[in-house]
Amino acid sequence: FLSIEHCIKEIQSEVNKQCPDVQLQTTTDCFEWLTNYNYNTSKTPSIPDGEMIKFLKTLQDLLTDEQNHEEMIFDLLWDLSCQSSISFPSTLSGTSLHFFSRTSLHSVEDHSSMDVKSIWDDIRLHLRRFLVRKLQSYNEINNSQQKISLKNQCLQQLLFLYPESEVIIKYQNIQNKLLAKLMQNFFPSYSRDSNLDIIVHGCQSTMLKLYSTIKEDFNILCEILAPSSTVKFIKETYLDTVTEEVAKFLENFCELQFKENAVRVVKTSKSSSKHRGAVHALG
C-alpha cells in the first residue's frame, strides 16, 4: 500500500507541474496549499453570446414549431446545468446573463445580452405553461404516493426556471382552485329544509379529501421549503380559507334556523289564539 507521505509527494509534484506560480518545497507547504485552496465549484464556463443565442434560438424554434418536445428540452437544459456546470438564471425581469457573455463591459453598444435574455424568457414561459398544466393534472391522480412524487418532481423543475417565491405562489393558486371545488361540495346551498345533522354527515367524505390534500402538500413542500414556510403555506392556502367558510356556513345556518323558529312561534301563537277564541264561543 502506498504511504500517506508518498501520496502527498505525488500531489506536491503534480501541483508544481500544473501550477508554475506555485512551488511546494515541503510536505508542510503542500498541506497549507490544500487547506487554503479555493474549490470554487460554482464557477461556470463562459460561453460566447453568439453561440448561446444560436443554441437558445434552436430550442425556441423547437418549442414554437414542434409539439411534445418540452420534456426533451427540459432534460437537455437540466443535464447542461448539472453535468456541464452551465447556469441558467431562474429570476425574472432584470436578470443579468453576465456568465453567458465574454463581451467587454466597455462596449459602446451591445444588444446580445438582451437578446439572450429575451429568448431565454420566452423558453422559460413555454416550459412553465407546460409544467403548470402537468401540475394541475396531477390533482386528478388517486394514488397519493404517486401524486406526491410527480408533484415534487414538477415543482423542482419549475424551481430550475423560476425563483422559489414565484413557484410557490403559482402552486398556491392551483391549490386554491382545488380547494374551491372541495368547498362547493362541503357547503351545500342553504334551504328551508336544511338539516345540520344530515349536512355534517354528507360533508365527512369531503373533509377526508381535504385532510388528504393537506397531508400530501405537507409531504411535498417539506422537501422544498423551510419548515416555517411549509406551515405558512398550509395555513394560508387551506386553514384560513376553511375557517372562514365554516364560520360563514354556521352563521347563515343559525340565521336560517332562527327565522324558522320565529315562524313556528308565530304559527303556534296564532293557533293558540284561535283555540281560545273557539272555547269562548262555545261558552
From TrEMBL:
Q: Which domain of life is it from?
A: Eukaryota
Q: What is this protein called?
A: KIAA0825
Source species? Daubentonia madagascariensis
The top of its lineage is: Eukaryota, Metazoa, Chordata, Craniata, Vertebrata
